C-alpha cells in the first residue's frame, strides 16, 4: 500500500517480484522463451483448444497474422487484401466460435480462420462491421466500438446472426436476430464487452451497461448499471468470467454484476498514476492468471524504452492485495501448451541444455493454461523460468511508544532461497530515512545481526534463488530510554 505512506502503513511498503497467497508471498518466475521471434512487436495473441485438447497458438503484428508450428511462426495472413494496416495504438483482439478463430484490429475487416480447414485468415463476412473489441454472448458474436456502414460509431453495439458469425449481419430482428443498439451518454466509445454468468457487460468511458437476451424483435435489453465510472483504455479491461476488471480515470475497478469496487484506493492508485507513462497508454495490456487468482496489468513506466511495458501490477482477487513485477514485455498472454513427446523435443532442441523448462513442467503437456508474454525480443515465453529476486518491505513502526529502541536481530520466516536484510531507521517522522547496508545471515543462528538505536524502524528483505514462500519477519528489540 505505497499510497498510505511509511509510518504505520497497514500494508507492505514494497512487494516486488512476488505474488500474494493468503497472508504470505510466493515467487514470480522469469519468462523462458520458447519460440522464434516474430518479425516485429506482437500486438495480440490467442490460444485455441479443440475438443481433444490440442492447442493452436496465433499471434499478430501490425501487418501480419501468424500460427505457431513447433517453435516457428507460419504466416497465415489473409491471401486476398494484402498486409494489414493497423496503427501504433491499435491491437488484435481474438475470440473463438466453435472451430473458428476470429480476429479484429479495428482498421481491417474482421478476420476468421477455421482451425480444421483453413491455411490463411480471410474476411469473416462482407456485411460485418469493423470493430475494436468483441465477445461471445448467448451464441452471438457481439462487436463494440464499431466502424459500420454509417461511419465510426464508437457507442454502437452490433451483433451477428444467431449462431452464425460468418452470416449476413444485416439488421433482421425477427429473422436471423442480427441487429444493433446505440448507447448514448456514456462519454467516449464502448471500450470493452464481456459475458458474465448469465448476461453481458459493456464498459463505456463513464458507463457500465448490462446486456440481457430477451428474444426476437428486441433481442437484447440494455440497462445502465453505473453512470460514473468506466474506461477509455480497451486493453485495460478483462474478465475472469465472474467480474470485469478495468482501469478508470482515478483507479482500478472490479464490477461483479451488481457492485462496483475500487481496488487501488488507499493502496496503489496514486502510485500507479505517478509511475505510468500515459504517452503510451495504448501499450497497457492485461491478462488473467486463473491458477493464482490474479489480474495482471503490464504498463510502461516513465523509464520504459519506447513505451514498451516494463512493469506488471498484479492484483489477487481473493486476497485483495497488490504486488509489482519488474518485467519488460510487449504483451501479457494466456496461452495453451501445445504438448510434446521426448521425440518432439529432440526435433526442436539440439541438446538438453537448450530446453528452457524442466522436463516435468506442465509446459510439455498439451492443452494446459500457462501465463506468459511476448518478450521485448518478440518471442513467446512462459513465466516458468527461475524465480525472480524479490524484495518485500515492512511498514514503519515505533516499537517503543514511549521512547527509543535498539534493534538487535531480525529473523525472516522464509522457506528456501537466500536472503539479505537491511534496516531503515529515523528518529522523527520529518527526518530522512537512513538505511544500513544489506546484511547476510549469521551462519550459526540464521538471524540477521544489527545493533541500531532509533525511534522508528522498518526492514526490507531481498530473496534470491529457489525460494518457495515468505511469511514474516521477527524483530528482537530492546527499549533504550525516553525520546
The number of helical segments is 2
The CATH topology name of the largest domain reads Methylamine Dehydrogenase, Chain H
CATH architectural category of the largest domain:
7 Propeller
The share of residues in extended strands comes to over 45%
Provide the number of structural domains: 2
Largest sheet: 7 strands, antiparallel
What does the radius of gyration come to?
25 Å
Low-confidence spans: pLDDT under 50, at least 5 residues? Answer: none
Q: Report the helical percentage.
A: under 10%
Principal-axes shape call: elongated
The N- to C-terminal Cα distance equals 28 Å
Identify the CATH homologous superfamily of the largest domain. YVTN repeat-like/Quinoprotein amine dehydrogenase
What does this structure look like?
The protein is mainly beta. Helix content is 3%, strand content 47%. The protein is built from 2 helices and 37 strands. It has helices spanning 269-275, 342-348, and strands at 14-16, 18-21, 24-27, 32-37, 44-49, 55-60, 65-69, 72-75, 93-97, 100-104, 111-114, 122-123, 130-137, 140-148, 151-159, 179-182, 192-195, 200-203, 208-215, 219-226, 238-239, 244-247, 252-255, 260-262, 285-289, 294-299, 311-316, 321-326, 331-336, 369-374, 379-382, 390-393, 403-426, 434-435, 439-440, 448-454, 456-482. Strands 1, 32, 33, 34, 35, 36 and 37 form a 7-stranded antiparallel sheet that branches. The longest helix is centred in the middle third of the chain and has 7 residues, at 269-275. The mean pLDDT is 93.
Amino acid at each position: 500500500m505505497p499510497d498510505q505512506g511509511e509510518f504505520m502503513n497497514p500494508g507492505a511498503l514494497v512487494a516486488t517480484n512476488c505474488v500474494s497467497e493468503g497472508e504470505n508471498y510466493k515467487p514470480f518466475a522469469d519468462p523462458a522463451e520458447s519460440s522464434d521471434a516474430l518479425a516485429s512487436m506482437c500486438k495480440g495473441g490467442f490460444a485455441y483448444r479443440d475438443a481433444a485438447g490440442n492447442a493452436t497458438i496465433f499471434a499478430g503484428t501490425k501487418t501480419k497474422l501468424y500460427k505457431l508450428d513447433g517453435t516457428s511462426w507460419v504466416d497465415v495472413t489473409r491471401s486476398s487484401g494484402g498486409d494489414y494496416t493497423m496503427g501504433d495504438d491499435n491491437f488484435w483482439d481474438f475470440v473463438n466460435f466453435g472451430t473458428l478463430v476470429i480476429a479484429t484490429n479495428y482498421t481491417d475487416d474482421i478476420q476468421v480462420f477455421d482451425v480444421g480447414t483453413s491455411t490463411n485468415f480471410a474476411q469473416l463476412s462482407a456485411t460485418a462491421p469493423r470493430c475494436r473489441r468483441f465477445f461471445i454472448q448467448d451464441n452471438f458474436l457481439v462487436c463494440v466500438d464499431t466502424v459500420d456502414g454509417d461511419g465510426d460509431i464508437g457507442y454502437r453495439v452490433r451483433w451477428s446472426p444467431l449462431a452464425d458469425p460468418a452470416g449476413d449481419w444485416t439488421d433482421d430482428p425477427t429473422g436471423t436476430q442480427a441487429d444493433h443498439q446505440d448507447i448514448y451518454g456514456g462519454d467516449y466509445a464502448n471500450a470493452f464487452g464481456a459475458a458474465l454468468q448469465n448476461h453481458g457487460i459493456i464498459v463505456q468511458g463513464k458507463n457500465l451497461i448490462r446486456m440481457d437476451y430477451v428474444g426476437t424483435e428486441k433481442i437484447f435489453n440494455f440497462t445502465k448499471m453505473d453512470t460514473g465510472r468506466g474506461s477509455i483504455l480497451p486493453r485495460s479491461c478483462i474478465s475472469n468470467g465472474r467480474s470485469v476488471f478495468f482501469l478508470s480515470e482515478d483507479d482500478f475497478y472490479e464490477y461483479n454484476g451488481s457492485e462496483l469496487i475500487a481496488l487501488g484506493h488507499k493502496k496503489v492508485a496514486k502510485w500507479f498514476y505517478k509511475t505510468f507513462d500515459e504517452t503510451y497508454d495504448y501499450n497497457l495490456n492485461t491478462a488473467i492468471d486463473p491458477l493464482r487468482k490474479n489480474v495482471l496489468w503490464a504498463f510502461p513506466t516513465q523509464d520504459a524504452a519506447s513505451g514498451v511495458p516494463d512493469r506488471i501490477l498484479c492484483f489477487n482477487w481473493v486476497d485483495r492485495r497488490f504486488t509489482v513485477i519488474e518485467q519488460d514485455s510487449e504483451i501479457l498472454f494466456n496461452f495453451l501448451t501445445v504438448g510434446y513427446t521426448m521425440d518432439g523435443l529432440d526435433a526442436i532442441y539440439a541438446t538438453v541444455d537448450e530446453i528452457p523448462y524442466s522436463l516435468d513442467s506442465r509446459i510439455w503437456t498439451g492443452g494446459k493454461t500457462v501465463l506468459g508474454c511476448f518478450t521485448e525480443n518478440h518471442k513467446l515465453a512462459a513465466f516458468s523460468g527461475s524465480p525472480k529476486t524479490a524484495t518485500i518491505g515492512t511498514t514503519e513502526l515505533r516499537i517503543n511508544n514511549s521512547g527509543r529502541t535498539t534493534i538487535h536481530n531480525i529473523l525472516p520466516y522464509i522457506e528456501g532461497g537466500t536472503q539479505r536484510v537491511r534496516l531503515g531507521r529515523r528518529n522523527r517522522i520529518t527526518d530522512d530515512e537512513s538505511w544500513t547496508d544489506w546484511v547476510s545471515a549469521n551462519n550459526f543462528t540464521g538471524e540477521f545481526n544489527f545493533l541500531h538505536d532509533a525511534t522508528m524502524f522498518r526492514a526490507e528483505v531481498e530473496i534470491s534463488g529457489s525460494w518457495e514462500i515468505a511469511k514474516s519477519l521477527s524483530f528482537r528489540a530492546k527499549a533504550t530510554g525516553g525520546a
